[in-house]
Amino acid sequence: MGGLFIITTQVITSLVIWWYYSVSALWILSLSLIAGGCIGGWDDWYKLTSKHGISATSKFIAQWFTAFVLGGLLYMYDPLPGIILIPGLNIMYDIGIAWITWAAFVIVSISNALNLTDGLDGLATSCLLPVLTSICTCGFIMGPVFYDTKYTSLIWTASLVGLLFGFLWHNSYRARIFMGDIGSLSLGIGLAVLALILKVELLLPIAGLIFVLETLSVVLQVFWYKRFGKKLFAMAPVHHHFELKNMHEATIVMRALIISIITSICAFIIAYTSVFK
């Protein structure tokens, strides 16, 4: 139920912020958390009642539908619709309405990546904290987004970071509370939408390198098994591989956190040297 607590508290906080700063980004961010929570809650409920979650196909369809709806809303209410920024090159591309498909791809990718990372006590939350902070800071200093959107996104992120610190206090090894899919999917979608709003989504693979590696380990595991008939890793996602190689759970989480801090700093450095005028 940890994920439900995070979503509920963050949405209430967002409503309070929106009361003072009526910015469309806030309610889209809140909607992203609710939508991701609904998909994750649906999956978690099935796991509790039937011992297995919803089918991969149903989950995938729900994610893509949600992603396209959110992408459409972002496109409609974005003062700079269809713009993709290339960090480090100071280039802006206007891809028009095709941006909705791009946004949907980013949302589905990040939500699944965070969901796959959520497998050890404190792993997903520990890695998410520096990534959230970095992405918000990068957007604040780099992107050509209007100041009111930047400012409210900063407050929203600060609120979520505070919530996640509170959650991590009880989720660190050995965990006494868990976020489940309702938490990991909603937070993944929220992170993606935040990056899209601030126009820094291309920095996500850098800041969130751990999420990328976790996803790639699953893709490679499936490919390797189908191609060669044997496993590439002892178990995927890769954090379970290290766990089966007798590395302590807390050690895996700490090293993943260190990597996330380093990659988040790298993303910040790129943003700092790529200020779009």
Task: Present the secondary structure layout.
Elements: H1 2-20, H2 24-50, H3 56-77, E1 83-86, E2 91-94, H4 99-117, H5 123-142, H6 147-171, H7 180-197, H8 204-207, H9 209-228, H10 238-244, H11 249-272
Antiparallel strand pairs: 1-2
Q: How would you sum up this structure in a few lines?
A:
The protein is mostly helical and 277 residues long.
Keywords:
single chain, 277 residues, mainly alpha, two-stranded antiparallel ribbon, 2 strands, globular
Provide an overview of this structure.
The chain has 277 residues and is mostly helical. Helices cover 74% and strands 3% of the residues. The radius of gyration is 18 Å and the shape is globular. 45% of the residues are buried. The model has no long low-confidence stretch (mean pLDDT 91).
Strand tally is: 2
The residue-averaged pLDDT reads: 91
Strand order of the largest sheet: 1-2
Supply the helix-strand structural class.
mainly alpha
**Radius of gyration, whole Å:** 18 Å
Distance between the termini: 44 Å
What share of residues are in beta strands?
A: under 5%
SSE arrangement, N to C: HHHEEHHHHHHHH
**Major β-sheet, in short?**
2 strands, antiparallel
